[in-house]
Amino acid sequence: MLTENVEICCQLSGILQTTLGPCGMDKLIMDETNGLMTTNDGATLIKHLHLNHPAAILLSQVSQSQDQLVGDGTTSIVLLSAELLKQANVLVTSKNIHPSHIIQVYRKAQRFTCDLIDKLALSLTPENTKSYLQMIATTTIGSKIIGINNVHFRDMAVEASLRLENFDKNVFVFKRTGASIAHSRLLDGIMLKCRRLGVSSPTSVKNAKILLCKISNLSSSRSKIHNVKIDLDGGEADILSKIETDQLEQICDQVFSTGANVVFNCGAAIHYHAEQYLNNKGVLCMGYVDNSDCEMIATATGAKIVSRIDSDSSSRLGKAKMVKQILLADELALEISGCDNLQGWCSVLFRAPTRSMLNECEISFNDALCALSEALKSKKVIGGGGCLYMHVAEKMRQGARINGGVQQLVIESFASSLEIIPTILCSNGGFNASSIISQLSKLHSSPESSPWMGVDMIEGKVFDTVNAGILESSSILNNIIKGSVDASEMILRIDQNILLKPDKSLEQLGYM
Ligand SMILES: Nc1ncnc2c1ncn2[C@@H]1O[C@H](COP(=O)(O)OP(=O)(O)OP(=O)(O)O)[C@@H](O)[C@H]1O
Ligand SMILES: [Mg+2]
User: Fold this and answer.
1) What is the best residue among 20, 360, 453 to mutate for testing ligand 1's pocket, by most ligand atoms within 8 Å of CB?
2) Residue range 420-456, pLDDT digits in tens
């Protein structure tokens, strides 16, 4: 059973391995519902694979949970888990070591790895924070589609991570096709979909006071009477219409008296007469604002939704320095900028020529943001390019020689598994992996060696990754190690996969 499960996990890792690192390739996914998309993000790729083997599903869940926890390292976690399993399977089948012994030693090795990473990690200080964050962003973005505009997205991601005060992923995203990805930018506010405003409407309002309302009378003053036919002669119809107009104007006067110069009606239209009436007073109005946009406006501007106008309504207005209608790729949008309430939030406008590129931009930017937030949270960074995988592996081997016996065999297997990440980085770069890995092993086995010697993905040689500015957050690597050991333990413990089929009799009875 173990061999079957391990083979399946290795097949999954085989699909992902060509996407690892800055020279990783993309996958083109043809999805019946979403059409074509290209990606090299591990979690996204796995989400689109229709997996039906339980071991592959378990491994995919580990990658998804890495995505939810820290947002990056979703490819590495699958590759490392599969390699740990492959090595364990060799120990079980050829050396007759029981899986529970392997699990015990893997756990010990995992603690050793995480402790060494914590010990070696560099600390973020007020002096180095900005430059270290830039290096982390460059490393994360370098392996993604937005890597072609690395400096632009690096600066966007660093600024966004600093705006996210509490490090939650409070990000508003607005996406529009029709321009190159270099036109993506951070917004100093929010952006909404917008329909064409009335002819007499202002297209921009400075020092906006925003009324966010849910007033159905603004869409029509008419009471709704269904299935009743009333014959009116021309004069009577005019009188009724005048009453309606007067009522609408009364509501508009009440709205205007709150001091609002921008009005959003949530979920309902604004009657064209009311719109014109308010436009003539210099008020920008928009109806049919959907719930998610209402929440976004409320968060950004501090506006509170009102359902009727009273003396309290003025105090419920939101504020923004500017509300402006803009044209993006032949479609209108409304930009609300200068919002004081957006502290701890960031909002981003993504532009790209196609919808699939837009999605990939968002995923890649999110990876960078997660890596930066993790670094800011843990205040610890490490070198990339597989340097710590190699360093820990060598230190582990040196320690294992003292232990001897079964423990030494398992630790050596764990150490060899760690080398899979730098090995795949080398092969994806088209370099001679075995020569680079043996150079790195030699370097890291010397007591004076720097722990930061890793793979130079441009020249195909070894270099000091920290000096070269290839940095990562240490907590992401810690999570990769812990998650991979968890995944391999889960799969090593399985001695039988049981597939339960629905009860036929129930099925025949039509209950299922
Ligand atoms: N310029 C670089 N030089 C050397 N190594 C790099 C460079 N850029 C990235 N890497 C390495 O590439 C690996 C990350 O690759 P990648 O981002 O494709 O995978 P992941 O983070 O595991 O998964 P995903 O990003 O799909 O969630 C890390 O080990 C990182 O150190
Ligand atoms: Mg990554």
Assistant:
1) 20
2) 999 999 999 999 999 999 999 999 998 888 999 999 9
CATH code, 277? 3.50.7.10
Q: What is the dihedral of CA 306, 308, 310, 312, to 10 degrees?
A: -10
* Closest-approaching ligand to the CA atom of 425: 1
Q: pTM for this structure?
A: 0.83
**Full domain range(s) for residue 27:** 2-124+382-492
Here the tokens at position 104 are: 């015990």
* Single-letter amino acid code for the residue at 496: Q
Cβ contact 414:481 at 8 Å = no
Task: Check whether residue 455 and residue 400 sit in a common domain.
Answer: yes
Question: Distance between CA 342 and CA 345 in Å, rounded?
Answer: 5
Q: How far is the CA of 491 from the centre of ligand 2 (A)?
A: 25
Report DSSP letters for 90-157, one per residue.
HHHHHH---HHHHHHHHHHHHHHHHHHHHHHPEEP-TTTHHHHHHHHHHHHHHTSGGGGGHHHHHHHH
Report d(CA 68, CA 508) in Å as an integer.
40
